[in-house]
Specification:
Helix content: 55-70%
Radius of gyration: 23 Å
CATH superfamily of the largest domain: Fido-like domain
Number of helices: 15
Number of strands: 5
Shape: globular
Number of domains: 2
Order of helices and strands: EEHHHHHHHHHHHHEHHEEH
CATH architecture of the largest domain: Orthogonal Bundle
CATH topology of the largest domain: Fic-like fold
Length: 377
């Protein structure tokens, strides 16, 4: 099917409202739009350059944690949580009790994402894997009453107080088995000669249109993009996350989805997502370059600590994963006394690696500020 011939679906009359029934996607897709071909080339190049850092950066997993945390925080914030990235780094006991539910949602996202990446080693990217991930995402948080790990068995809607005044009503739940089966087949149909970045663009659109869960569809749908790229080998590590771009261009994102559904303009949607992948890939590569430069600088300065250099190296590796610490955490990490940990923290302050951030009760938080700043925009 050529994009210009795309028909998004049709409306089905239900009791007192209409639901949208999307067409299947597991078929050939073609296009005549040179803008898509050009964006595809640029996005593919950006993904390749980002992936190269996963292959050349020593101990790259040290830095993946902050990429994951930023994505978890931003993706959750799109859905209404109020947690900031520095709060997400804090131990639960140091988080304001009124914000601990939001904090837990971010932690669940991290756990769900990490679990899904691990599952890819033994499972294909499938409805089963997505349901497993969804179950972890909603465990013990506000959505725990909305069938964690199961596709919905009732009607949901987007916007409004109910389906009769909603901005969009996804397909009736009785359509889900066929639609999700078709989507799963589309992800794995090697007979279809469709570039991976175009395929996942279509798949994300279809997933969000089906809206198969009662809650968490946005987060799972965004995670689907990264999981697909890892499963296909385009990314060695999960380093591409689109939530920051989507949050910044939220109006454009929803407009592009709506335009595909209401105006049958799949080309417009694909151009939007390819642009997001290109820009996010370029930004990710620039972040890794800045990380390498900062790492070289700070590790050179810690050599001046003499006998403390080994503990300094261990602390730095911890800070790359979690750039917000207390003296108690450092003491536990290094298996040293609180006095020794505090002394090393003072050395790091003198070297302008750490600085005081916030004091909560008797706990003084210190932040690896220049590293933390690389993940703020």
């Amino acid at each position: 099917m050529n994009f210009k011939d795309f028909k998004a679906g049709h409306w089905v009359q239900q009791y007192q409202y209409q639901s949208f029934s999307p067409g299947f996607v597991n078929h050939d897709w073609t296009w005549d739009d040179p803008r898509i071909s050009t964006l595809l080339e640029h996005a593919t190049r950006a993904i390749g350059e980002l992936n190269a850092f996963s292959l050349i950066v020593p101990d790259v997993d040290l830095f993946i944690r902050m990429h994951v945390l930023k994505e978890a925080n931003t993706s959750s914030r799109i859905e209404g949580t109020q947690t900031e990235i520095d709060e997400a780094l804090k131990p639960k006991e140091l988080v304001d009790p009124e914000r601990r539910d939001d904090w837990q949602e971010v932690q669940n996202y991290i756990k769900a994402m990490s679990g899904a990446i691990e599952d890819l080693e033994s499972l294909p990217l499938s409805n089963r894997l997505l349901r497993n991930t969804h179950e972890i995402l909603l465990e013990g948080v506000r959505g725990e009453g909305k069938l964690p790990g199961e596709f919905r068995k009732s009607q949901n809607w987007i916007g409004g107080s109910g389906p009769s005044d909603a901005a969009f009503v996804p397909p009736h739940h009785t359509e889900l088995p066929e639609l999700m089966s078709d989507l799963e087949k589309f992800l794995h149909n090697d007979a279809l000669l469709i570039p991976d970045l175009v395929r996942i663009s279509i798949a994300h659109y279809q997933f969000e249109t089906i809206h198969p869960f009662l809650d968490g569809n946005g987060r799972i749908g965004r995670l689907l993009i990264t999981l697909y790229l890892v499963s296909k080998g385009l990314l060695k590590k999960p380093t591409l996350y689109l939530s920051a771009h989507i949050e910044k261009h939220k109006g454009d994102y929803y407009h592009a989805l709506t335009r595909a559904r209401e105006s049958d303009d799949m080309g417009y949607w694909v151009r939007f997502l390819l642009t997001a992948i290109r820009d996010t890939g370029n930004k990710g590569a620039a972040t890794f370059q800045s990380i390498l430069e900062l790492r070289k600088e700070v590790e050179r300065t810690t050599l001046s600590l003499g006998k403390k250099a080994e503990n300094a190296r261990l602390l730095l590796n911890h800070l790359y994963r979690k750039p917000l610490v207390t003296a108690n955490e450092v003491a536990e990490l290094l298996n040293v006394t609180h006095q020794t940990a505090s002394s090393l923290i003072r050395d790091f302050e003198n070297l302008q690696i750490l600085k005081k951030w916030e004091k909560i009760g008797r706990s003084q938080l210190y932040i690896f500020g220049r590293y933390f700043a690389l993940f703020l925009d």
